[in-house]
Give the backbone structure.
Amino acid sequence: MTGTLLEERLHEVSEVELMSVKLNVLSQFEQVAKEQNKTLAPLSDDLVLLESGLDSLCFAIIVARLEDELGVDPFSAAEDADFPVILGDFIRFYEDAAK
């Protein structure tokens, strides 16, 4: 494999990993909403988290499960980071931590 092909392959793997993170996050939102009998707003990148239909307990469960699934907790690792306000930022928070 040439350097260019290797770089392309690494980029493809990275994209797959990021998609996996996003799918994991979305799956947890849906699962926790169902378990906690919450009506979940339609999931989109621009969904304001406070308008998602989930409460603080739901978010705590999601964060704990994502730490188990992904092996990262970006909230404890980020000392001076702004906390996400919209779902897209929440997902990117995890994607960046998983890199």
